[in-house]
């Protein structure tokens, strides 16, 4: 009895028409779309943030409070600073940096901190320069060597050191004052003023009105020379010693003025 066997195909070739259709999974597109929409929303919010906040402001800032008592700054000064352009906005729309810049235009204000208080107030902290010397007869120098101005009726200048020089050299001149004053005290001499010029030449005035022209370089040997020759200076009758020029390598030149 004969048997017939049907052999199995060794490979199957499928065409595109024979492939079953797989349903598309739309869920994989949801996350990128959500990220895209979030970025667009964030950009729109960022671009219109200021406008939206300003729309919430019903009135501009109209009051302020100082955190501590100031020495030189008056309420009139503060109101004048706040009234400068640009005009004050409301709580949400007001830029704090704009207000700080207004106060820093006041010469004697060293630093300022400003905080907004809802709904329409400011909290202001002012830091003022502390004057320690008179500068070029009209200005003042702070303890950090900063030149600034101050109305004369706000501060008593009597007894302050008097300094002269280019504004850029204020700190250098102030430091020189302290050093020269200390050197003179050890010689029982008092100091009234210190001056320098653009060439770095120094002149000091003692509290007896005698001017010492020290020139450039180290002043200590020149002051020592003055102390040595001072008792030997012959002052004519009716005259008084005006200056001693110590810029020479040896000796000195002197000048007199009427009593």
From TrEMBL:
GO BP field: cell division
Main location: membrane
Cell compartment(s), UniProt: Cell inner membrane; Membrane
InterPro entries, per the entry: Cell_div_FtsQ/DivIB_C (IPR005548), FtsQ (IPR026579), FtsQ_C_sf (IPR045335), POTRA (IPR034746), POTRA_FtsQ_type (IPR013685)
Record Pfam families: FtsQ_DivIB_C (PF03799), POTRA_1 (PF08478)
Transmembrane segments: 29-49
Matches recorded under HAMAP family: FtsQ_subfam
Reported function: Essential cell division protein. May link together the upstream cell division proteins, which are predominantly cytoplasmic, with the downstream cell division proteins, which are predominantly periplasmic. May control correct divisome assembly.
Protein name per Swiss-Prot or TrEMBL: Cell division protein FtsQ
Source organism of this protein record: Frederiksenia canicola
